[in-house]
Each structure stands twice: as structure tokens, then as C-alpha cells.
Specification:
The complex is a heterodimer of chains A (about 600) and B (about 220).
Chain A: H1 14-25, H2 28-45, E1 55-60, E2 69-74, H3 80-87, H4 111-118, E3 120-129, E4 132-138, E5 144-146, E6 153-154, H5 157-163, H6 173-182, E7 185-193, H7 202-211, H8 215-221, E8 224-227, E9 235-236, E10 252-255, E11 259-261, E12 267-269, E13 279-284, E14 296-300, E15 305-310, H9 311-314, E16 326-331, H10 354-413, E17 471-474, E18 498-499, E19 509-512, H11 517-525, H12 531-557, H13 562-583, H14 585-589
Parallel strand pairs in A: 1-8, 14-16, 17-19
Antiparallel strand pairs in A: 1-2, 2-7, 3-4, 3-7, 4-5, 4-6, 8-9, 10-13, 11-12, 13-16, 14-15, 18-19
Chain B: H1 8-22, E1 30-31, H2 32-42, H3 44-47, E2 48-49, E3 52-57, H4 60-67, H5 69-72, E4 76-79, E5 82-85, H6 87-97, H7 113-123, H8 126-133, H9 141-148, H10 156-176, H11 183-199, H12 201-208, H13 212-215
Antiparallel strand pairs in B: 1-5, 2-3, 4-5
Helix pairs in contact in B: 1-2, 1-6, 7-10, 8-11, 10-11
Classes of the chains: A alpha+beta (about 600), B mainly alpha (about 220).
Chain lengths: ~600, ~220
């Protein structure tokens, strides 16, 4: 059977308005934002440029505080017709634009009205345009209507200002100039505000508004003045972005993909011919933004914020802690496509549906990536600080090694032991006969290019330059001795614990690889001051000493058997550890050793 | 007696044979003088002093090949002015003195034992594993050293010798299609070699060029 209904007008009781208005009844930040948007929309309809869209906000704290008065003033003004055909109508989505085709901040035709109705004992607006004054508002019973005697009254501007209790002489100069041009104004007045007692302050409300995702954009692009005492000077509000991290100073722009695949496998278009632009702009903060209200992702439509989501609510998968240092905007006007149904009535959060979920998940992953970069940078900084401590220890070990090595080498290989470190300055090596004449000689090599007949030399005038004493540096921290202008040498965790580049070899430079997993683990879990880390560094020195000594041994003895190597290692370790026990006891065992 | 001497390659093979005899078929180090005398005894026409080939050896005939091509090709190692065959050098000497009876005319079907051992070692190298995993991991300089069993301090000629030895082993294995070598692993070894040579071309030049370090 076909159902045939004879349509009738809706019958709505005030109870529904009470119910819907509750969300504005106690939140003055949210409500003021609605009034500010209404003021901006009036300017937009009047085609006033952003910089001339003067908004004045008075949150006048009186005593007792419950008698306070909140006022918002713009210099546009509404005509009687606007009130009747737009303001009066609940839930008219064309109310803000008046079908002008202009993009406005207002969306659902509710916010400002509900705030006036629910958040004050009484409220009204005094509006003047084209020589006519209207006063319209809500009484204590939350009923609305024109104030008696003030419907479309023809009076001059000065008289209208008097009715509105606006003293033009106290206005900011830019406001006076605007008023002179427009010859109109609206002042919204709320008396005896709800939930404005005890610790609540007008100053705090204003602070929150400068951080509010929607109001902040108004403050950023329009002159919004405020005061909390009627006799005080007007203060221009500013939207303060947090100071960025020095290592991530610039906003990061990422284009939103044209399409994403949602959880149902359907394609969600996010950029098209009508809305070709969509991007994510992320910024960092030097200080944690947790609980500041700024640690969020504002979703921006064609003209203003259409939703805002705390970064924590996005659920960063890998680096949630570093998400506290990020905020940003997701510009995606396609979400305002009426078919998408993504924009909520209060524009606080996007409507939870498959389209917004897939977009927010995409944004979450980008934020998580940036958070990962912050975490990595922090880890590097921590490591740098650790390595600063380690560098002091390294210097101590270098001094110990330089003092100890000549003795050790003399002990192991004979000779005078003179010279600085390994190889000394030619001591113990064959002398002359080692020339450059060979076809395959190596400048640093006593084997190659040496005619075998030269073995019994030793009487030459010119001594071969011995290998320099090893210099030990820390990767990722110490300057490169061969290129002081270059950044510190960064090594891979896969490279050995003690590393040399080809150019380091003739200079006797060794790098302790601080990226090795064990080194990282010790630094991260125990710190650079720990005895464990000092021991780790000491062991790397032992490794270097052993390596150097093996080359010296090969040069002095030739073919090396396993037995000979073991004997050499035993002797070397015994000497090194005995000497370290005497000379480095404090370094190796003291818990409180610091640079 | 003919004064015509053999080609460079034949002469180098003769030196390897002489070294093999001096070292009793091992890779131990031998005195230069022993090699000179043995080479002359085995091949007087090649290594005798001109005009006195049956009376005196000519030491200078061995010096250059030993320090030059034989070392750079990885057949000979030098330590403290003593010379020893490498595994590869020993294998070549043995091939000359005792050619395998079952070798096919093309030399295909199996690789030399020393080369087989080299391939088995290469299969276990980190670079081979990295190539197998894909291009995500960077091939480091230390992967190059590990692949060729050298270090940053290996002398240029020895470095070149190791590259030559390893390359010969891989090429021989690729050509021989030896059934005892896993073809997939061999392919990965070959890929790892190509990747390392591409990534570290400059480093290889630096470390195999005499005097490069001091110039840089």
C-alpha cells in the first residue's frame, strides 16, 4: 500500500531549544566564538576587507561577578529584514550567507542565537543600519522578540550609539573610522552570564579564545580588540603560535592525496575540480603543548575551522609522547561538500564517519612521522650530550695511551721505546735500503717495493717517518681532525666498534663507533657517566692497541702462527690491564667520576 | 741455445712452479734467494744470467714479476721480504705440474678446489645477505672489506690481489656450472660483487692505487 501523507508544518516546543541550547549554556569560549563569527559574517556580506573587519569584545567583570556583562560589537549592522528573515529562524543554514553566495563562518544558523538564549539571564542586540535602529533579544523566560519601542526606529547614528551605550570617543581609531564609513553597528549584549563565578575570569576566556581553533583564525586575520573593564584601553588580541623547536622552525606542508580508500574499500575523494587544494600543515612547539588547548589538528574548510581534534585523540601509533609538541591545520574544503556530511553543527569535531576517519587516520600517520623525526632529533641531542661527557673521558684515555704506549711497545718488541706511541719514529725497523724505486711500492710500507737485497741495511741517512701515535675520536661528536669544517663523522651501527677511513690510516686516527648497538644501549640505559660506558671506551682502546701491535708484530716477525698470536695477545693484555689497574683505577671504578 | 724467452704469462707460471717446489707445495714463506736459484735450476733458459745461463741465475728476472703482476693478481704474498704462494697461486702451480686427468677441454664442469673454498666463504658474507634482502640496506665500506677479506690497511697490491683472486673464483664458478655450487647462492654472490663494485668504485681505486693515500 502506498503511504500518502498530507504534509504539515513542524510543531516545535521551547523544550527542544532548551535541549539543543545546553551545549552553549555554560561555555563562553564556544559562545563568544559564535558571536565573533557572526560579526565577521556581517562584514563578509558587506564585502569589507579582512583588515577593516573591526570586532570589539567587552567581557566586563562586575561585582558581584554574576552581574557581569558581555558585549560584542561590529560596525556593520543589521536591517529589520535581516532579523526577521535570518536571525529569527532557527537552524537556517543559509542564515549566515543570506543566500549571497559568499562563504561565511556561520554554518547552521544556530550558534549565536543559542548562546544568547542559554548562556545569559537576558540578552539582546542593538543594531543600527541605514538609519534604522532595532533591538531584539531574549527575556528571562528565554523568549525572543523585538524590544518594545525599538523596532525599525528611524534615528540618527549618535542617538543609536547612545541607545547601545557605545561611546565613540573611547573606541579605537580604526573602529571610529569604520563606523564613519559604515554608519552602522551591532552590539550583542549578554547580562548575568551563566557559569561565570569564582575562578572564572574574563581574561582567561579571552586567552582561550585566542587559542580556539575557530576564533584564533579570526584573531589572526582581523583586528579584534578586547577589554575587561569598561574604562580600560582596548587591547588588540593576537593569536600566539607557540615558539617552534629550533631544529624544526618551519611549518611542514604535505599535500592531501586526491583520494584515499576508506575502511569499506570505497574511494574517498578529497580533492577535485571544485576543491582542488587540500594540504596538511604541521608545526612544532619548543614546549610541550599538552593541556594547553593548542595541541590539536584544526580542520579548515573554505573559510574557517570546521572541526578540531586533539592530537592525543588521534592515537599516534609510534611516537605519542612527541605528538605533544605538534599542532597544525588540515585544510580540506572538500569536507564541506554537502553530500559528505562531515561538518558538525558546532564545528567542534568532524562528524565521525568513514570519510573523516580515513582522512584523520592519514593525518595521524603524517603527524606520527613528524613525531618520529622529533624523537630521533631528541635522541641525537641526548646522545650528543652523552658524547660530550664521553669526549672528556676519551681525552683522558688518549693521554693514558700516549704515556703508556711507548713503554708497552718497547716491552713487546724491544728497542728504546722512544717515540710517541706505536711505531715510534722509526725505532726498531730496518734502516735504509727501503726505497721508492720499486714498481709496486707503498709509501707507508716497509715490504713492498723493497729490493730484498736491502735487508741488511740500517745505515741510511734518512729515517723513515714512523706511524703517528694513534689519535682516538668519537663518531657523531668529535670534529674530524682531517677536515675541521666538516660535521662530525657519523657511522652506521653496522660498522665496527673501532673504525678507520682510508685517509685515517696514515694519520693514525681511529674512531670509536658510538652508533654500535651495544654502545647505544649502554648510553641510553646507563648514561655516559656510568662505569659501564667508561669500561666500554677503555675496551675499545685495548682493541686499538691490539690492532696496532699486530701490524707491528707482523712487520717485525713476518709469518704469524696462531701460537705466536696467542702469546702476543697474552703479553699485551697482561701489560695493558696491569697498567690500567694502576693508572686508571679511578676512571674504571669510581662511580662519581665526572669530567 | 735459444735466446728467445717465453711470454710474460709463461714466465710468471714458471715462477709459481719454482715457488711451489721451494715451499714443498705449501703456502709458507720462502726466501727470495731460494726462489731465484730454484727457478734458474728448473728453467735456466728463462732465469739464467744472459751469456751465462748455465752458470748463474739472474735475480732481476724475478723481482718485477713477484712484486708486480703475481702479487697484484693475488698469486703471491709478500711479508718481510719473503714470498709465499697464495692458495690461488699454489693451485695454479699444481695445475701446471699435475693437470687433472678428468678436466674437460673447455675447463667446464668443476672449479678448482681453492676457488670452491673461496665461493663457499663468499656465500656467507654479509654483503650477500644484504643483497638478498633487497636494496633497503646500504652496502658499507666495511662490507666491501669483508667481501674481499681485506681491511682498510691492506696494502694496495694485496688489495688488488684479493680482488683478482675473488673475481677469478666467481667467474670460474659462473662459467663452470659446478653442480656442487648452489646456483642461487652463486647468483647472489655475483650480484653482491657487482653492487659493491658499483657503490664503492672510488674506494676500490683509492685502496688499490699505490701512493693514493699520501696523495689524498
Amino acid at each position: 500500500m502506498t503511504v500518502k501523507i498530507k504534509p504539515e508544518d513542524n510543531v516545535i516546543t521551547d523544550d527542544l531549544l532548551d535541549t539543543l541550547g545546553r551545549e552553549w549554556a555554560f561555555d563562553h569560549v564556544k559562545g563568544q566564538n559564535e558571536l565573533w563569527k557572526n560579526a565577521a559574517d556581517q562584514y563578509i556580506r558587506d564585502e569589507i576587507p579582512d583588515e577593516d573587519q573591526i570586532i570589539l569584545v567587552e567581557l566586563l567583570e562586575l561585582k558581584p561577578k554574576k552581574n557581569s556583562v558581555f558585549r560584542v560589537i561590529d560596525f556593520g549592522g543589521m536591517a529589520h529584514n535581516d532579523i526577521v528573515n535570518a536571525f529569527k529562524r532557527w537552524g537556517d543554514i543559509s542564515a549566515a550567507s543570506r543566500n549571497s553566495g559568499k562563504r561565511t563562518f556561520g554554518g547552521h544558523g544556530n550558534g549565536g542565537k543559542f548562546y544568547m538564549r542559554s548562556a545569559f539571564e537576558t540578552s539582546r542586540f542593538v543594531t543600527y543600519r541605514a538609519g534604522r535602529l532595532n533591538v531584539y533579544g531574549f527575556n528571562k523566560a528565554h523568549q525572543y522578540g523585538f524590544q518594545e519601542g525599538y523596532t525599525n526606529v528611524a534615528i540618527d547614528l549618535a542617538a543609536a550609539l547612545k541607545v547601545a551605550e557605545i561611546d565613540a570617543a573611547t573606541l579605537p581609531l580604526s573602529a571610529v573610522a569604520r563606523l564613519e564609513k559604515s554608519q552602522g553597528f551591532t552590539v550583542v549584549i549578554g547580562e548575568r552570564p551563566n557559569n561565570f563565578q569564582r575562578s572564572a575570569t574574563a581574561k582567561r576566556i579571552l586567552e582561550k579564545l585566542t587559542q580556539h581553533p575557530q576564533a584564533r583564525r579570526l584573531v589572526a586575520h582581523r583586528p579584534v580588540y578586547a577589554r575587561t573593564v569598561s574604562t580600560a584601553d582596548w587591547q588588540l588580541l593576537r593569536a600566539h603560535d607557540p615558539e617552534p623547536r629550533p631544529d624544526f622552525p618551519e611549518p611542514i606542508m604535505i599535500e592531501v592525496p586526491a583520494t584515499l580508500i576508506d575502511e569499506n574499500g570505497d574511494r574517498v575523494v578529497l580533492r577535485d575540480d571544485q576543491w582542488p587544494e587540500a594540504f596538511l600543515e604541521l608545526q612544532t612547539s619548543k614546549e610541550s603543548l599538552r593541556n594547553t588547548g593548542i595541541n590539536r589538528l584544526d580542520v579548515i574548510g573554505e573559510i574557517g575551522a570546521i572541526g578540531s581534534h586533539d592530537i592525543t585523540s588521534l592515537g599516534l601509533t609510534n611516537h605519542p609522547a612527541h605528538g605533544d609538541f605538534i599542532f597544525g591545520e588540515l585544510y580540506c574544503p572538500k569536507l564541506e561538500d554537502p553530500q559528505y556530511k562531515c561538518v558538525a553543527n558546532d564545528r567542534e569535531r568532524l562528524i565521525h564517519n568513514e570519510k573523516t576517519r580515513v582522512l584523520l587516520e592519514w593525518a595521524r600517520d603524517r603527524i606520527d612521522e613528524l613525531a618520529g623525526q622529533l624523537a630521533e632529533a631528541d635522541a641525537k641531542e641526548r646522545k650528543h650530550q652523552d658524547l660530550s661527557q664521553s669526549s672528556a673521558f676519551n681525552e683522558l684515555l688518549n693521554q693514558w695511551k700516549n704515556k703508556f704506549m711507548p713503554t708497552l711497545m718497547a716491552q713487546l718488541f724491544g728497542g728504546s721505546g722512544e717515540g710517541s706511541g706505536f711505531g715510534g719514529t722509526g725505532a726498531g725497523e730496518d734502516g735504509s735500503g727501503e726505497g721508492d724505486g720499486a714498481a709496486d711500492g707503498d709509501a707507508n710500507d716497509s715490504d713492498e717495493g723493497t729490493p730484498p737485497g736491502g735487508e741488511d741495511g740500517g745505515g741510511g741517512d734518512e729515517l723513515k717517518r714512523g706511524r703517528r701515535a694513534p689519535t682516538v675520536r668519537l663518531s657523531g661528536y668529535d670534529a674530524d681532525p682531517l677536515d675541521l669544517m666538516a660535521p662530525p663523522l657519523e657511522l652506521s651501527p653496522r660498522q665496527p666498534g673501532v673504525y678507520q677511513r682510508p685517509k685515517d690510516v696514515p694519520e693514525g686516527i681511529y674512531w670509536i663507533n658510538t652508533s654500535r648497538p651495544l654502545a647505544q644501549r649502554i648510553l641510553e640505559s646507563l648514561g655516559a657517566e656510568s662505569t659501564r660506558w667508561r669500561d666500554y671506551m677503555f675496551q675499545r682502546y685495548v682493541e686499538i692497541i691490539l690492532k696496532e701491535s699486530l701490524y707491528t708484530l707482523e712487520r717485525s716477525e713476518g709469518d704469524l702462527s696462531a701460537d705466536r698470536l696467542q702469546g702476543h695477545i697474552d703479553s699485551l693484555y697482561t701489560s695493558v690491564y696491569d697498567h690500567a689497574f694502576e693508572e686508571l683505577e679511578n676512571f674504571l671504578f669510581s662511580d662519581k667520576l665526572k669530567r | 741455445m735459444s735466446s728467445v724467452r717465453s711470454s710474460g704469462r709463461d714466465r710468471r707460471n714458471m715462477i709459481l712452479v719454482a715457488m711451489s717446489v721451494v715451499s714443498d707445495g705449501t703456502t709458507r714463506l720462502c726466501a727470495y734467494e731460494d726462489i731465484v736459484v730454484r727457478a734458474w735450476q728448473l728453467f735456466p733458459q728463462e732465469f739464467g744470467l744472459r751469456g751465462y745461463v748455465d752458470l748463474y741465475p739472474d735475480a732481476s728476472d724475478l723481482h718485477k714479476p713477484l712484486y708486480g703482476p703475481l702479487k697484484r693478481d693475488g698469486y703471491v704474498r709478500v711479508q718481510n721480504k719473503k714470498f709465499g704462494l697464495t692458495d690461488s697461486g699454489l693451485a695454479v702451480a699444481q695445475q701446471i705440474t699435475q693437470p687433472p686427468a678428468d678436466e674437460s677441454p673447455e675447463g667446464k664442469g668443476r672449479v678448482r678446489r681453492d676457488q670452491l673454498i673461496e665461493i663457499e666463504k663468499l656465500c656467507k658474507k654479509a654483503a650477500v645477505g644484504l643483497v638478498q634482502q633487497g636494496p633497503s640496506e646500504e652496502l658499507l665500506d666495511t662490507d666491501l672489506y669483508d667481501f674481499y677479506s681485506v681491511t682498510v690497511r691492506t696494502k694496495p697490491a694485496d688489495f688488488a690481489g684479493r680482488i683478482a683472486t675473488v673475481d677469478r673464483a666467481i667467474d670460474a664458478a659462473l662459467g663452470a656450472q659446478d653442480p656442487s655450487i648452489d646456483k642461487t647462492r652463486l647468483a647472489l654472490v655475483s650480484l653482491a660483487r657487482a653492487a659493491l663494485k658499483e657503490v664503492h668504485a672510488d674506494l676500490i681505486v683509492e685502496l688499490t692505487t699505490v701512493g693514493y693515500k699520501t696523495q689524498s
